[in-house]
Amino acid sequence: MDKLFEWERFFDNIPKMVPYLSVTFSIAIYASIVGVILGILIAVIRMKKIPVLHQFFQVYVSFMRGTPMLVQLMLIYYGLPVFIDHAFGTNINREWSTVIFAYITFILNQGAFLSAIFYSAITSIPYGQTEAGLSVGLTEFQTFRRIILPQMVRVALPPYGSDLVGLFQNSSLVFLIGVTDIMGRAKTIGTVTKHVIEAYVFVAIIFVIISLMIRLLFYYLNKKLDYGRGRRALILKEL
Amino acid sequence: MDFNLENFKESLLSGIEYLPNTLKLVFVPLLIGLFLGTVVALVRVYRVPIIDKLLAVFVTVYQGVPIVVALMIYNLIFMLKFNDIAKALHIPKTVTNVDNIWVGIFALTLTAVCSISEVIRGALLSIDKGQDEAGYSVGLTKVQTIRRIILPQMVPVAIPMLINNVVGLIKASSVVMAIGIIEIVAGSIIPSSRTYSFFEGYVAAAVIYWVFTIIIEYLADVLRKHTGRFRRNLYD
Questions:
Q1: What pLDDT shows up at residue B54?
Q2: Nearest chain A Cα to B123, which residue?
Q3: How far is CA A40 from CA A37, A102, A158, in A?
Q4: If you ran DSSP here, which 8-state letter would residue A49 be given?
Q5: CB nearest A66 (choices: B161, B199, B213)
Q6: Does residue B228 carry a pLDDT above 60?
Q7: Average pLDDT of the residues of chain A
Q8: Under a CB-based contact definition with an 8 Å cutoff, are residues B25 and B105 in contact?
Q9: Which chain B residue lies closest to A59 (C-alpha atoms)?
Q10: Min Cα–Cα distance to chain A from B205, Å
């Protein structure tokens, strides 16, 4: 066995791996965009207490928060084909690429987590403000758009940032269902060249950079939105 | 769709059988994390020179590494270098007779230390500086102030966030199946590979985790009410 870690192999690997970053980013982008929509939908249903749907989504959010991402990924991967096969009689295992299962899982997962963030952000604003808005003749939607939303964003931003960091980290799990993302690529490099540690270290560095960039971005966003809040905002930021 | 209850039950029992491994993977890191995390947080809050900067950089960087990646790296180093390290330290063991669950515990411990230290740092910062000054003014030493005044006030602030961390650890512990440690998930699909009922196997694993986290959250609620009872103000 020669040396465990060699810089030469490390730099050789980089051009082979960087293209696969797009898979990681596409998962994160799909999950963010559709997840935000789903999250808003669930939060609205929970605010309005629409019967049946309200209870259903309560269980759904609890399930998504209480089970590991890995298990959810596997459930979708093994469960959805069986379900669709019985409902529509098409075999999606053959037609869909595995990355679609990853998209679906991450969207469903993000929807649940984001709904919890939005819900707690909305409820952190005293109900008196809604009442005040309604009393001066604003419609319900106007009250939400002009009074609740601007305040809510400030509260929701820090947890959304850490959620986004977590989303990127979790996306490295998709190699377990056979999606070739950057981690899956590291593994295949390992099987071909028998030297996998350089590839893994590169993956680690990439994820550290992504997480630092997101943190930095949210740090500045927080600072921008921090006007006139004083001590409370300071505490929120530290948390 | 056909959901085979018989296979599901078998998977459920097989998964529960490996629950102790998951408990080990959660609670050993949690205990070490609570201890070291508090130390790290205190070092950073009270600005011990040099060490605080090093720890700040380490915690920030390490929180960016996904746990699967860290796990894979540690496992590789463990497999390839354990014999050499053991020889250098005169430990009469080789890689074959050490359970690799310790690699999982090690990886989860480092993650736990980082995330718990952040939680505790946040809780410490939420306590007013005047409390330190008050302790100092009545003649307590720094250690006495921390132990008798700061830490007891920090606990109720930190508990809700700590519970999130525990749930996160429980969920993160499922990742160790990637290096071949058998815990709840890997345990529940043992019968599946024979009967080819992977969906039932994973549903069983999900149910075990779900019940587990619900129990933890319930206990957390009891604990939160208990520790918060002195903080309740008159308006509550």
A1: 93
A2: A239
A3: 5, 21, 17
A4: T
A5: B213
A6: yes
A7: 85
A8: yes
A9: B210
A10: 7
| Length of chain B as a residue count | 236
Domain layout of chain B by residue ranges: 1-18+189-230, 19-181
Query: How far, in Å, CA of B55 to CA of A184, rounded?
Result: 31
Work out the pLDDT band at B99, boundaries 50, 70, 90. Answer: confident
Record the pTM.
0.85
Nearest by CB: A211 against B2, B64, B73: B64
Q: B197: nearest CA in chain A?
A: A78
Q: A152 near A104, Cβ under 8 Å?
A: no
- Report CA-CA distances (Å) from A72 to A69, B136, B185: 5, 52, 11
Query: Which residue type is seen at A5?
Result: F
Instruction: For residue B206, list chain A residues with Cβ-Cβ distance below 8 A.
Output: 63, 67, 71-72, 75
Domain boundaries, chain A: 7-238
Looking at CA atoms only, how far is residue B139 from chain A in angstroms? 29
Which chain A residues in 129-158 lie under 8 Å from chain B, judged by CB atoms? none
Q: What is the pLDDT of residues B54-70, one digit of tens each?
A: 999 999 999 889 999 99
**A contact residues 148-207, partner B, Cβ 8 Å cutoff:** 165, 168-170, 172-173, 176, 183, 196-197, 200-201, 203-204, 207
Q: The domain at A7-238 falls in which architecture?
A: Orthogonal Bundle (1.10)
Q: Is pLDDT at B203 greater than 80 in this prediction?
A: yes
CATH ID of B19-181, from 3.30.70.2970, 2.40.128.50, 1.10.3720.10, 3.90.105.10 = 1.10.3720.10
